[in-house]
Design a protein that fits this description.
heterodimer; A: about 900 residues; alpha+beta; 6-stranded mixed barrel; 22 strands; B: about 110 residues; Arc Repressor Mutant, subunit A; 3-stranded antiparallel β-sheet; 4 helices; 3 strands; globular; disordered N terminus; WH_DNA-bd_sf (chain B); Tscrpt_reg_PadR_acidobac-type (chain B); Metal_resp_DNA-bind_regulator (chain B); PadR family transcriptional regulator (chain B)
């Protein structure tokens, strides 16, 4: 065996000289000659007979050669160097082809980089295959009550602890906060200002479950996650590097996190960006038991409140199906003990509670769920563009093939085998596609960066590397190979189909058809594909325009949104009323500031709080509304108009009667037509709570959360008025809903220093009060359209490239036809054809292909494909005629331009010269 | 029976069997097969040399240049150890197959 391999290796690296085989064959003939001579034949007769007896010496030699693998390598090297020489010789062709393909391959590789990073990659942890997540959706934040359908992914601290105790199939079962938030952090004994940083609360075994080792220091242990344990945190590697220059003394030092002293125990390993992909990965990891201490929130110890995701590492050999059944049983047991599911209303739902076990190796797949459909669409689109590029190159190669017809005829006449010629031509196209693939990687790198910037504008720490990874390199290589074969095989086959006799007939006269049927078909295909992409882009542009033209019922002119966090700055709920007064006063003192609104959250931001609603004296409609707290100037500051009654004033304080403002949708949903809502009472469903708030005013439906949320019922409560329901339950210190998170500033003119003014003003009130996020209202609104805008821009970009390629292709083929038919056109003109009729003849040919492409393929395919993007479009059903018309006209115009240039050239043919060109 | 009628793989067997006696050059192998088969088997050169090189590549035979019977430079092939094993295996196969065919034809 070894010997065979050695021989193989020797054959591979040291091809035997051709001489050796020649010598061997020559000896055979000589020996035969001797034999014949020995029988008395004359020398020359013996030689002749020996050669005849031997048979085809050339084929015997060739076949003997082919027994060795080295011949393959040798020919390959030969072909590659010949291909390179050929490509160097025709620079124009090479540059065009490489650029076209690099664009096509690069676009695909760029999209694939994202697909790979977002959809295919596992977390950088030990044995990701053994990680199992309990639950499979991205339900978020803090949830309570019954969910229908009953597929749960969020769990209470209690449920997690019970699972940990009762499911020994898991080596480790880690829990982590679902809704990532921010904390305010400042390093002790430094001049550093307090900053808002991303944080994640995790269980003590979190890092152990993932099998991670600290960069330095130590990661969490179970002892860190105990009530009353010293406050500790783990810092992410990136934060350590970027903000503290990798200073080892960070470990063991004190940080003031939400005004509490916390010791940094260690630095997380490099490359670990938390358990999910996020544009703002956690800077600090904190034990979940520190939630009440640091953020004043109590849900950690409330069995009714579900807020944790759970990922575990199963022991080897554990079967998943029985494990799932067991986990379901345990979860049901745990839920049964809660008041929600032990109530009469909740009991029937207990049987419907179910959890799915999903692969946990990629962590929590929030971003994956978000982007999967868009990325798939982009893969399709970039694939189409590549296909058009391939058609273009195939066309170019065909033209080249025609020009090399003579060369091929001569080679065939000299005895070249057809397979050999095909192989050589195919090598040429593969070399071309490989060069393009390499150039494509540069396009891919730039493209990925552009995509990332478009997908996550302004984000710093997106843990997606634009640099091509091994997977991406392999992908680009594969795509290059595929395209090389795709655009190379047919032209190679046709070109190799040369008749040796052709070479002997010099100056082969062109046939009238000029371009072959195949070339025309490629043009038809290109125009069809380009139309599909143009229609797609048009649909997205139309949808985005519709989205942007939705009346959001707000006013963003000269408005600025300052997010802040009074709780992280150390204020208790009892202290915030005074703080809000101070904020209003201080900001009003700044010249230029007209209105100061304070609220829990603002229009068009990714935040929402919801609760059930019942009108006092009416049946429970089993429906809810979003709600938030606002200050008296808030409605003016965001530009919400009042329809009825009044909004809050400075007299609506913590001690005045509980009042609420509702929006138009709320009135439409909960009151009969024509009923006057003013003065009516409502609240959370229940005989006691349904009378909690008195409606004092109705405002119009300003868009919250997203522009497309129709019939969004909302109610607004005064900023500092306690909810009577929670007031009945306990003291003010547990009432975290009193914390506002946003200040809306309206100025009387555009001002560019609002951010620094806000910073200074807040810091002057309390150094711990820092700006968590600052944006103009316009920027905040634009952020909500990021994804739609990105996909629309990319669609437009791709369709423009497609249009350009299709036009170039048509131009190339028409120009080629004109060159081939020069003499024919000359004869026609000599016989009296007018210039107009020549232009008409050429244009008819060119436009016919486009027309077929559009009418026979493009429009039906576009019609058919629109359904696949409908789900991504806003209020769009079927194809839009306007879009289809514009796309068709655009393509026709481009085709006309592409045809007209060669047609005019044909018409300017001088008959006498044309006839002499032979 | 001409060489083209030879059963697939039979040529390899014939070459190996011939080389089992002594090392030989290509012409000699063709001659030997022809003589032993009483001119019934004539090996075409177009298949002999590719076969020799294939067997060499497989490591069943090895080649070295030496002087021929009339002192010309010639390439001599000889059986390797794996080649001997292969010959044994192929002989057994052949025996089985020919017995089987004989049984059917009887």
């Amino acid at each position: 065996m070894l010997k065979e391999w050695l021989t193989r290796l020797r054959f591979l690296i040291s091809p035997k000289p051709h001489r050796e085989i020649d010598d061997e064959l020559q000896f055979h003939i000589e020996r035969q000659v001797q034999e014949y001579v020995a029988t008395g034949m004359p020398q020359h007769e013996a030689r002749r007979k020996a050669v005849v007896a031997f048979g085809g010496i050339e084929s015997a030699r060739a076949q003997t050669h082919e027994q060795r693998p080295s011949i393959f390598l040798g020919t390959l090297l030969q072909d590659v160097s010949y291909a390179l020489r050929q490509l160097r010789k025709s620079r124009g062709f090479t540059v065009t082809a490489v650029l076209t393909l690099a664009l096509g391959i690069g676009a695909n590789a760029a999209i694939f980089t994202l697909v790979n990073a977002i959809l295919l990659k596992n977390l950088p942890v030990v044995d990701p295959a053994n990680l199992i997540r309990i639950g499979d959706n991205s339900e978020c934040c803090v949830d309570s009550g019954i969910q229908d359908p009953g597929d749960y992914a969020l769990f209470s601290t209690d449920t997690w602890q019970q699972l940990q105790k009762n499911a020994p199939e898991f080596e480790e079962l880690a829990a982590m906060q679902s809704g990532l938030g921010t904390v305010i952090a400042r390093r002790d004994k430094t001049q550093e200002a307090a900053r808002s940083v991303a944080s994640e609360f995790v269980s003590g075994n979190y890092f152990r479950t993932f099998g991670l080792q600290p960069r330095i220091g130590r990661l969490f242990t179970d002892a860190d996650n105990v009530i009353g344990a010293p406050l500790v945190a783990v810092m992410s590697y990136n934060t350590w590097q970027n903000n503290y220059a990798g200073d080892p003394s960070v470990v063991g030092s004190i940080f003031w996190i939400n005004t509490k002293a916390v010791i940094i125990t260690g630095i997380a390993p490099k490359g670990f960006f938390g358990d999910r992909l996020s544009s703002s990965p956690p800077d600090f990891y904190l034990p979940i038991e520190t939630v009440p201490v640091l953020t004043n929130r109590t849900f950690v110890h409330e069995p009714e409140q579900r807020w944790l995701y759970i990922i575990g590492r199963v022991k080897p050999g554990v079967a998943i199906a029985p494990l799932r059944a067991k986990i379901n049983e345990l979860v049901r047991q745990s839920f049964a003990a809660t008041t929600t599911f032990s109530s009469e209303l909740g009991k029937p739902y207990l049987a419907k509670v179910s959890v799915t076990l999903s692969p946990g190796g990629a962590g929590i797949q929030e971003m994956q769920d978000d982007y999967a459909s868009k990325l798939k669409l982009l893969m399709w689109i970039s694939g189409l563009v590549l296909l058009i590029a391939c058609a273009n190159i195939a066309n170019l190669l065909l033209v080249r093939g025609m020009n090399r017809h003579e060369e091929m005829s001569i080679r065939t006449a000299l005895g070249a085998m057809r397979t050999r010629i095909v192989r050589q031509l195919l090598t040429e196209s593969l070399v071309l596609s490989m060069i393009s693939g390499m150039a494509g990687l540069i396009v891919a790198y730039a493209g990925t960066r552009m995509l990332l910037a478009m997908a996550f504008p302004g984000a710093q720490g997106v843990p997606i590397d634009a640099r091509p990874s091994g997977m991406v390199l392999a992908f680009a290589f594969g795509v290059s190979l595929l395209t090389g074969i795709l655009f190379g095989v047919v032209p190679a086959w046709i070109t190799s189909n040369a008749d040796p006799a052709d070479a002997l007939r010099s100056g082969s006269r062109a046939t009238t058809s000029g371009a072959s049927l195949l070339q025309r078909s490629l043009i038809v295909l290109q125009s069809a594909l380009a139309l599909v992409l143009l229609v797609g882009a048009g649909m997205f542009i139309q949808s985005l325009n519709k989205l942007r033209n939705i009346d959001l019922k707000l006013n963003a002119t000269n408005r600025y949104i300052v997010h802040f966090n009074p709780q992280a700055a150390g204020y208790s709920p009892a202290q915030v009323e005074a703080l809000y007064r101070t904020i209003e006063d201080r900001f009003h003192a700044i010249p230029g500031i007209r209105k100061v609104g304070i609220s829990s959250y603002t229009p068009m931001e990714a935040n929402n709080m919801g609760r059930g609603v019942q009108i006092q004296g009416q049946p429970d409609l089993q429906d809810g509304a979003s709600w938030l707290r606002t200050s008296s100037e808030y409605f003016d500051s965001v530009g919400t108009h009042i329809l009825m009654g009044r909004v809050f004033t400075a007299r609506d304080t913590s001690t005045s009667p509980s009042v609420a403002v509702v929006n138009q949708s709320f009135v439409n949903r909960f009151f009969k037509l024509g009923e006057n809502p003013i003065g009516r009472h409502f609240g959370s469903p229940g005989p006691q709570t349904s009378g909690d708030f008195e409606i004092i005013g109705v405002v119009e439906d300003t868009a919250y959360n997203s522009a497309t949320w129709k019939d969004h019922h909302m109610y607004f409560l005064p900023l500092t008025q306690r909810d009577p329901k929670s007031a009945r339950k306990g003291p003010i210190d547990g009432d975290t809903s009193l914390y506002a998170e946003a200040i809306v500033l309206q100025t009387d003119r555009p001002m560019d220093n609002v951010q620094s003014l806000a910073r200074q003003t807040l810091a002057a009130i309390n150094p711990n009060l820092s700006v968590v996020k600052f944006q103009t209202f316009d920027e905040q609104i634009a952020d909500r359209f990021t994804e739609d805008r990105m996909i629309t821009r990319l669609m437009t970009l791709f369709s423009i490239v497609a249009l350009l390629l299709a036009t170039l292709g048509l131009y190339g083929v028409t120009a080629y036809t004109v060159t081939r038919r020069t003499s024919e056109i000359g004869i026609r003109m000599a016989l009296g054809a007018s210039r107009g009729s020549v232009v008409g003849m050429i244009m008819r040919g060119a436009m016919l292909q486009t027309a077929i492409g559009l009418a026979a393929i493009g429009i039906p395919v576009a019609w058919f494909c629109v359904r696949y993007i409908e789900s991504q479009l806003y209020e769009s059903k079927g194809i839009s005629l306007a879009v289809l018309t514009i796309a068709t006209l655009t393509l026709t115009a481009a085709a006309t331009a592409a045809g007209l240039i060669p047609a005019r050239r044909a018409a300017s043919t001088n008959p006498s010269q044309a006839l002499r060109t032979e | 029976m001409s060489a083209t009628d030879l059963l697939q793989g039979t040529l390899d067997l014939l070459i190996l069997r011939t080389l089992a006696l002594e090392s030989m050059h290509g012409w000699g192998i063709a001659q030997r097969i022809q003589q032993v088969s009483k001119d019934a088997l004539q090996i075409g050169q177009g298949s002999l040399y590719p076969a020799l090189h294939r067997l060499e590549y497989k490591g069943w035979i090895q080649a070295e240049w030496g002087a021929s019977e009339n002192n010309r430079k010639a390439k001599y092939y000889s059986l390797t150890r794996t080649g001997q094993k292969q010959l044994q295996a192929e002989l057994e196969d052949w025996g089985r197959i020919s017995t089987a065919i004989a049984l059917v034809l009887k």
